[in-house]
Amino acid sequence: MFFKPMKWAMLWALFILILCGIPGRDIPHIHFLELLSFDKVVHAGIFFVLFILTAIGLELQTKYSFNNNVSKLYAAAFCIVYGASTEIMQGIIFTERSADVFDFIANTTGCFIAFYFYKKLRSIFIKLF
């Protein structure tokens, strides 16, 4: 049963896709936050959550036949490829959006931070399932 343990990760990935598809003119601009590069923090944050949800979903899907490290590696690979894919779609498919290599770097950074803290955060997030 793939969908049940992965439902939160899939819903979060859909949320990210919707956010990436919103035309640039419809995204609110908060000028003082732009000075702090808030956009990159948001990118890192949403991919941080995607990594945690994906890694936990993979663990639960396989009923712990993966060890934490294998689940983490698969989750990292998925999140990095998904982050690259969303940036490519922003450059090619979505209107009024553009691909940004720095957004991809922020996405990947969020994944790596979650990879590092996964063991500590797992018990908090697993309650969602």
Explained architecture:
There is one protein chain. This protein is mainly alpha-helical and 129 residues long. It has one domain. The chain is 76% helix and 0% strand. Helix 1 runs antiparallel to helix 3, helix 3 packs across helix 5 and helix 4 packs antiparallel against helix 5.
Which bin fits the share of residues in helices?
A: over 70%
- Sum up the overall morphology in one term: globular
Number of domains: 1
Give the CA-CA distance, first to last residue: 14 Å
Strand content: under 5%
Rg, Cα atoms, Å:
15 Å
Mean pLDDT: 82
The count of helical stretches stands at 5
- The sequence of SSEs as H and E is HHHHH
Q: Could you tell me the number of beta strands?
A: 0
Largest sheet: none
Low-confidence regions: none
Q: How do the strands and helices of this protein lay out in sequence?
A:
Layout: H1 3-21, H2 31-35, H3 38-61, H4 68-92, H5 101-125
Helix pairs in contact: 1-3, 1-4, 3-4, 3-5, 4-5
